[in-house]
Specification:
By secondary structure, this protein is of the alpha+beta class. The chain has helices spanning 5-32, 65-70, 147-152, 210-213, 245-271, 277-300; strands at residues 40-48, 54-57, 75-81, 101-102, 108-111, 113-115, 119-126, 130-136, 143-145, 163-168, 171-185, 188-197, 206-208, 216-221, 226-231, 239-240, 243-244.
Length: 311
């Protein structure tokens, strides 16, 4: 799909209206579930150079010394970096090679496609076979796909699927959840990534959210139109399948927290005779399935029990 600036602007306006109520409702919903999402918070910094160019990075050492010392133009952002994402070592997709190259220290650099409104699109491969051009959105907690992308992935029936409620311009809407086997950008790949299906997204294939980005330390270079992805594990740190013990523990705790909260909410809706109670129970089953797969993966790689703690 070729980038169309006019259509992309239209898409972004539509997304902004849906996205605001989308995220607000999700916060309220999780609070009702009494589920405390376990994750880590990472600092994301931005600064404007002498030429007026705006730069983003999650590594403050990347900011030139003169800006750090004076704090001129430097702004710190707090973004939820999901500790519940899974990724193996960077790899390639044999059948669908994407732009992207290895830099030093296992950094992966991916070209960004600029569109109007200061936004960027990223070429992505889903499940190793479906190409998608997603809009980079660090404010989105999940990858979000259009219904058309869902059909290409072979997911066409949503009536009895796992769903979560969100408020939209047209009222409350329950949006389906899917688990992507793999998400590949350049030579970076993650496994078992949560995504939602949004019928309101038009003209683009969806949003690239933190369910992928949160598995990396990343830097967005707007001037050079480049996304740099770096491994989240510290060099020399003991790892199992490329992930530290703290990563594994945080992901297990995240799943346990979500399962506990949604189980409580599903029971509440069932007592009230809500028609979507079965769908929310499916969401509980969805996350239980993800946790089981994580447990199997941990066993294969010999993860110690202390990093599999349950809440």
């Amino acid at each position: 799909m070729e980038a169309n600036p006019a259509k992309s602007m239209s898409a972004r306006l539509k997304l902004n209206r849906v996205s605001l109520v989308f995220r607000f409702t999700l916060v309220l919903f999780v609070m009702c579930c009494t589920a405390q999402v376990v994750g880590t918070f990472a600092g994301v910094f931005s600064y404007r150079d002498d030429k007026g160019a705006l730069h983003f990075t999650d590594d403050i050492s990347k900011i030139p010394k003169q800006y750090r010392q004076s704090e001129k133009g430097v702004r710190q952002h707090r973004e939820a970096r999901g500790a519940h994402r899974s990724t193996p070592a960077p790899t390639t997709v044999p059948s669908l090679e994407l732009p992207g190259s290895f830099a030093q220290n296992q950094e992966i650099q991916v070209p960004l496609i600029p569109v109007s409104g200061g936004n960027f699109l990223v070429d992505t491969v889903l499940n190793g076979r479906v190409k998608a051009r997603l809009m980079l959105d660090t404010g989105a907690s999940l990858i979000t796909l259009t219904e058309e992308m869902g059909r290409k992935l072979g997911v066409s029936q949503y009536g009895d699927s796992a769903e979560l409620p969100f408020n939209t311009a047209g009222g409350e809407e329950w949006m389906p959840l899917v688990a992507l086997d793999t998400v590949t950008i350049g030579k970076a790949q993650t496994r078992l990534v949560e995504a939602s299906i949004n019928s309101h997204i038009k003209d683009i294939d969806g949003l690239l959210g933190m369910s992928f980005l949160g598995d990396f330390r990343f830097e967005i270079d707007r001037t050079n139109k480049r996304l740099t992805l770096k491994p989240s594990r510290v060099a020399g740190e003991q790892a199992w399948d490329g992930k530290s013990g703290n990563w594994w523990l945080a992901r297990f705790e995240h799943y346990d927290s979500i399962i506990k909260g949604y189980t409580s909410r599903a029971s509440f809706l069932k007592r009230r005779g809500h028609e979507k109670a079965p769908n929310l129970q499916k969401t509980v089953d969805f996350y239980q399935g993800l946790r089981k797969k994580l447990q199997n993966r941990a066993s294969i790689f010999g993860l110690p029990e202390r990093f599999r703690s349950s809440l």
